[in-house]
Each structure stands twice: as C-alpha cells, then as structure tokens.
Design brief:
Radius of gyration: 23 Å
CATH architecture: 3-Layer(aba) Sandwich
Number of helices: 12
Number of domains: 1
Helix content: 25-40%
Structural class: alpha/beta
CATH superfamily: Alkaline Phosphatase, subunit A
Strand order of the largest sheet: 6-5-7-1-8-13-4-14
Order of helices and strands: HHEEEHEHHEEHHHHHEHEEEEEEEEEHEE
Strand content: 5-15%
Length: 488
C-alpha cells in the first residue's frame, strides 16, 4: 500500500544542456475547456468515464465535510535562487554571495536581499520557510516530488501520482454537488508541464485560463454568455442530447450518462451564469487596485487569482513565467540561459510588487483565515556561482559566447513563503548552513509541504487513500506531517 521508495544520493550539478521548464509550451487542455469547446456535440466522451468510475469506487478515507478553505499556489518554474532572495549569505565569500545588498525586514532578525523591498515591508504578514529540501535535481522529478510526493529522483515524461491540486479537487467533488457555479480548481497560466491528475483522470484537471490578463483584449472564452438567444439555443441542444440518450440508459452499466448529465449541468452553469463572468472580469476592479498589483502579466494573474478564490474557487494555481522572467522565460538561471544576477534584477520588481499586493489583499479583504497563499518553486539554485558561455542574447542574457555567471539546480536547500491560512506570521522557520548549501535546522521535505496544504483544506493526509488504476488504495502522501508553525 505504501508508495515505492527510491534511495539515491543526489548531487546538484551544472547540466548546461538543461532547457528548463518551457515558458510558453503547449499545455494540456483542461476537462472543462474540452467539454465547453464541444458542448453542442457531446455524447459519451471518454474523459468522463474515469470520473464515473472513480465516483463508484470512492476512496478509503475522505474528509468528513467540505471545508470552505482555499489555497493559492504561486509557482516559480525552474526554481528561485534562495541566496539572492530570502536566505542571503553576505559572509559566504565572493564565489557564493552575489552582488546584492542585504536589507532588514519588518521581522527582527529576518533579512532579504535588496531585490525585495516591498515584501520586506510586509514580512509580518507571512512566514518564510528556509529549510525546504528534496532529493531530485531535475525539473520533472523535482516538481513531482514537491507537488505529488513522488519520491523518485528520476525524471519521467508524466507523473505517476496525482498532484495535490487534482487530489483536492477529486476529494471535494466526492462530497456532493457543488453549489458555487465556479469550478473548484482553476489554473491561471498554471504549472501543467510536470504534474497532473495521473490515475484520477483529466476530469480533475484545472479549468485553465491562458493568455495575458494584462492585455486589453484578454477574455475567458465560454464564460457567462450574455446573449439570451444563444443561451436558449444551448438549452435546446442539451435537451435534445438528453432525449437521444434515453434509449441508451438501459445499457449504461458504468454510470457514464449520469456523469455526463452532471458535466453538462456544470458546463451550462459556466456558460450562462453571470456570476462566473463577473469573477473572471478584471475590469470590475478599480484602476488603483490593478495598479497596485502591477500592470503586467504577473500582477494581473495574481489579482485574478484573488478575485477567483474570493468568489469561491477552492484551488488556484498560477505560474510566474514568460517574458517577465528573461530570455528563456523561466527561473532556470543556468549561465547558458541567463546572467543569474541580471535575471534576478530583471524580474524582481514585478515579482515583489505582485506578491506583496496579493498578500496585503488577502488580509485587507478578510480572506486570511480561509485562503492560504504559498509561493514556491521546485528547488533552489546552487550557492556557488558557475560560469559558462551564453547561448543567446536577450533580456538578462549577454550575446552568444559571452561568459556570464549562473546558478544551477539545487534541491538540498531552498525557501518558500506562506501567508494567510490562519497561520501565525512574522516569523522564519529553519536555517541553512553558512553558505546556503544544506538545510540544517527544522528540515522540511515534500511530504511535510503537502501534508501542510492538505491540512488547511481539511484533508488528513495520513489517513486518506485513493484507488489507483489497478484498484489499489494508495495514500495521497505516505510521508511527512503538517509543519506545526504553518498550521492555522
């Protein structure tokens, strides 16, 4: 019943061929997007079969009730340099420390680099976890370790276990019909590359919102239709489909049609309920609020995230990638990709502003008990600076062939920040050694990370099992406990 464990000594290296996570790669369609796009022709899509089967099978342990808590996860694909942000080491020597000055924060004894002045000014509203570690040096395996608890250190083309977002979506769906018209799980340019629902099936993937929320033409298709005639036509199509299916009911052995009916109800709600359109409409925010988050992709992504959880979304994920990261559009700051220090400077203002505004808003709008905000990447970056020739000119990267500094993958120590969730804030947890190479105090791993998020969502990770493809009860995470300082 336990997940298989792979023991392997992992050393962070300098894999210069590593392309890093793709910033604008083609993403997998979400369950709801697929259905909405083909609403008029739905019959018995295979995507719903897994949902029907999973409901029939159930799980061995489910939450006793559906808590109204929510989580926003802000993902830094490629991994943030902890040395150049939340865990500076000014006395570590020129081979390690980087060029940035150190600033005090609102929390005594807690210092950041000069790149994060806004977050430093509100450090009493969040907690920094400085002693995260995992054992996988590659982006796929590192992401799978942190988001699904898979202990494997090997990079795989697709996840073996479902990520925590899909698990939460699945478990809450078992508690009966959802009253809120919004999807339970939404991804705003979400991290989809190295994680997913695995054996839960695509029915529990996010409703995905792609594109630039800062663009004047940004809109979410198939949400909140306002044309009454079109709404009536969709209703007639749905009724016709149900009438045509009547003869099939006697042969529906697996409950696919019941699942389809539920799907169409959800789809029609998304299509016709004005509440859904309002939740996704950033134009309903005043200019001052939009300016406070930053009139750029990241700022408006996090503002949309706040709007959606405030409107009732349970799980919201969003990736800070794309052009605001630099030439390769992610945080994978090998020297071949970016000058790591220029990259950190290039993205720091937008990152600092957006995250600060989100955290402030969570408290100012009274969401701090219900909504937990987690900001993290899959690992850190090497404390020791490496040098290599750039592979191309662009933002934060010198012309091809130019030697420039970089930091490589480093799973042995990294930082993330936590806000809201009813937790006690204004503190820092754990510590790394004098160079930031190893977590040495209050070491926390992926299991602890996941158990903490599940706890906020009202899920006891130690007692919750879901049946896999073979029908075996599988723990949602088989190691780790909620981090006491991060439990509300």
């Amino acid at each position: 019943m336990n997940r298989s464990r792979h023991t392997m000594t992992t050393r962070a290296t300098s894999p210069h061929a590593c392309p890093g996570p793709r910033g604008n790669g083609a993403s997998r369609r979400s369950f709801l997007q697929t259905g909405l796009a083909g609403f008029a022709t739905l019959t018995l899509p295979g995507i719903l079969k897994l949902q029907a089967l999973s409901r029939a099978q159930g799980s061995e342990s489910l939450p006793a009730n559906r808590e109204k808590t929510a989580v926003i996860m802000v993902w830094q694909p490629g991994g943030l340099s902890h040395i150049d942000s939340y865990d500076p080491k000014p006395d570590s020597g020129s081979e390690y420390r980087g060029p940035f000055g150190i600033i005090s924060t609102k929390v005594p004894g807690l210092h950041f680099t000069e790149l994060l002045p806004r977050q430093a000014s509100i450090a009493d509203k969040f907690t920094v976890l400085r002693s995260m570690r995992q054992t996988a040096a590659g982006h796929p395996a590192g992401s799978m370790q942190l988001l699904s608890g898979d202990p494997d250190t090997r990079d795989k083309p697709k996840p073996r276990y479902p990520d925590w977002m899909s698990v939460a979506n699945y478990l809450r769906s078992q508690q009966g019909p959802r009253e809120n018209p919004l999807p339970a799980y939404v991804g705003v340019n979400p991290p989809l590359e190295y994680n997913g629902p695995a054996y839960l099936g695509d029915a529990y993937s996010p409703f995905t919102v792609s594109g630039d929320p800062n663009a004047p033409t940004f809109s979410v298709p198939n949400i909140g239709l306002s044309d009454a005639g079109e709404v009536r036509r969709l209703g007639r199509r749905s009724a016709l489909r149900q009438n045509l299916d009547t003869l099939e009911r006697a042969f529906d052995q697996q409950g696919e049609l019941a699942a389809l009916d539920e799907f169409e109800t959800r789809a029609m709600t998304l299509l016709t309920n004005p509440r859904t359109k309002d939740a996704f409409d950033l134009n309903r925010e005043d200019d001052r609020t939009r300016d406070r988050y930053g009139r750029n992709t990241w700022g408006q992504q996090l503002l949309l995230a706040r709007r959606l959880v405030e409107a009732g979304v349970d799980v919201l994920t969003t990736s800070l990638n794309g052009p605001l990261c630099g030439r390769v559009q992610n945080w994978d700051d090998h020297a071949v990709n970016h000058n790591v220090f220029e990259a950190m400077r290039f993205r720091a203002d937008a990152y600092d502003q957006a995250v600060t505004a989100l955290i402030e808003d969570i408290y100012e709008r009274g969401l701090d008990q219900r909504v937990l905000v987690v900001v993290t990447g899959e690992f850190g970056r090497t404390p020791k600076i490496s040098y290599a020739a750039s592979t191309g000119a662009g933002n934060a990267s010198a012309p091809a062939g130019t030697q420039q500094p970089g930091r490589d993958h480093w799973p042995r120590a990294f930082s993330n920040i936590w806000a809201g969730g009813g937790i006690q804030t204004g503190r820092f947890i754990g510590a790394t050694d004098k160079r930031g190479e190893d977590s040495i105090e209050r070491i926390c791993g992926p299991g602890d990370f996941l158990a903490t998020i599940y706890h906020h969502l009202g899920i006891d990770a130690s007692r919750t099992f879901i049946r896999d493809f073979n029908g075996r009860p599988t723990p949602i995470v088989d190691h780790g406990k909620p981090i006491p300082e991060l439990v509300g």
